[in-house]
Amino acid sequence: MSIRLRLTLLYIAILALTLITFSVMLYVIQSQATLDAIKSTLERQARDAQRTNLMRRFPPRSDLPQSTYLPGRWTQIRSVDGSVIRRTADLSDTTLPLSEDGLRAVQQGTSWVETAQVEDDPLLIYSQPIPNAERGTEIVQIAAPIIEREHSLATLRAILIGGNTLAILAAFAIGWGLAGAALQPIHRITQTAQAIGAERDFRRRVQHVGPNDEVGQLAVTFNTMLTELESAYRQVEQALDTQRRFVADASHELRTPLTTLRGNIELLRNDLPMDAKERADILTDTKDEVERLIRLVNQLLVLARVDAGRPLRAEPLPLKPLIEDVCRQAKLLAPRRAITAETLLDVQVWADRDALKQVLLILLDNARMHTPASAAIGVTTAPVDGRVAIKIHDTGTGIAPDLLPHIFERFYRGDISRSGGGAGLGLSIARELIEAQNGSITVESQVGRGSTFTVTLPQVVE
To answer: Is residue 391 left, alpha or beta, with left meaning phi > 0 and alpha meaning psi from -120 to 50?
Structure first.
């Protein structure tokens, strides 16, 4: 059952209950009011009969039967034992009934009202004891026809039933239309959701021009949700594209050293005639390719950990000893390269020691590869708005302006910035690790004058 039908039926049920309650109350009030009016008339006539003392003015005679006629209409006199003494002419031979309960009530001195069917006519009969000075207490009965009252009540019933039926049918049609109009925005939302699900088009929005009621708020909320879904969908698409590129580039990078290894192994297996120097070169080449594979796999593992969202443990870290240790290790890899660490701040930063050390080693290695052997590499630190900037400066070939926006992308290698034998993952790893520590990394470069990489981290305030 649809919401529209349920709302309409609920509305009709409430309306029907209200109309029925009102109609029953109106019918009961009208019925009682007309009955009370007739009873009041009969009571007044009984009081008049008591005041005029009809029995004294018209005493019974021996030559007349007990049913001697009285003046007036629909009036009958009974003795205290219930025998009919007199009646009015309009009653003729008709006797107004009096039930046993009514007789006992009147004998006890109280009035009694009852309805009876007399010659197919409904009558309301009022019985009341009246005193008689000569014969003691007698009973006066005054009747009034209530056929007109019953006809009027029947007409009222027909009007109420017919009117309520027409009102309910009209209300059903109106309620059905109003419910449809009220639910039209929800219907549009449903259609939009179905279209979005079928077309995958999260740019669509629900058009709502009505007031800012509950339905309007629902439309606004739905549009806001679509905006969030569109943003999330784009992010997922970008992530999938990045993942596809990553897999393709990783496959390409792994294929090259593996192909070289397979070729060298085939040469050694074939046992072809070669001198000792050539065999040593093949083994050296094989060793270098294995080490290259190991470095590439390690870099991929680092990126996988970062992409998995594994948090780094940031803690207060003395910066100066760490930089000095990194520079010492870098000099061991390139003993002829001049690496200077000057103007180092003796401060602490919020960072993960191993992650920050790996970033600095990557930046120093990148500077070493793109700087002439005679050029120096410098490491400095400086405070910047409550943070600490670590700058690694080289005087190498520099990076072309059109390549700067891409050097932190995975597997990107420009003609100048990535001319070595790396896989193009070092700077990407550095950026991921620094951002995971609530830091940032930037680069400034001029072709022919060198590059400066700046790492900024939060400073520990003592």
So the answer is: beta
**Closest alpha carbon to 173 in 377, 343, 15:** 15
* SS3 state of residue 286: helix
State in words which class domain 215-305 has. mainly alpha
Q: What pLDDT does residue 26 have?
A: 94
Most confident of 62-66, 229-233, 303-307: 229-233
Fold of 3-154: Beta-Lactamase (3.30.450)
Residues found in the chain: 462
Q: How do residues 17-34 score in pLDDT, each as one tens digit?
A: 999 999 999 999 999 999
Return the closest-CA partner of residue 364 out of 400, 312, 328.
328
Phi, psi of 116 (to 5 degrees): -150, 155
Q: Which two tokens stand for residue 304?
A: 């996988």
User: Using CB atoms within 10 A of its CB, is residue 365 exposed (0-12), middle (13-18) or buried (19+)?
Assistant: middle
Give the pLDDT confidence score for residue 61 in this predicted structure: 38
Sort 214 into a burial class: Cβ within 10 Å, 0-12 / 13-18 / 19+: exposed
Q: What is the dihedral of CA 179, 182, 183, 185, to 10 degrees?
A: 160
CATH class of 311-458: alpha beta
DSSP string of 72-136? SSSEEEE-TTS-EEEEEGGGTT------HHHHHHHHTT--EEEEEEETTEEEEEEEEEE--TTT-
Identical topology for domains 3-154 and 215-305: no
Contact 139, 46 (CB under 8 A): no
Encode burial over 225-258: b for 16+ CB neighbours within 10 A, e otherwise: ebeeebeeeeeeeeeeeeeeebeebbeebbeebe
Domain residue limits, the chain: 3-154, 215-305, 311-458
The token duo for 4 is 């529209």
C-alpha to C-alpha distance for 85 and 88, rounded to whole angstroms: 11
Q: Are 448 and 460 in contact (CB under 8 A)?
A: no
Q: For position 218, what pLDDT does the model report?
A: 78
Whole-structure pTM value: 0.47
Instruction: For residue 143, give the 3-state DSSP assignment.
Output: strand
Q: Coil, helix or strand for 69?
A: strand
Q: Are 77 and 70 in contact (CB under 8 A)?
A: yes
**Burial of 321 per CB tally in 10 Å (0-12, 13-18, 19+):** exposed
Count Cβ atoms within 10 A of the Cβ of residue 409 and give its class: 0-12 exposed, 13-18 middle, 19 or more buried.
middle
Confidence of residue 60 (pLDDT cuts 50, 70, 90): very low
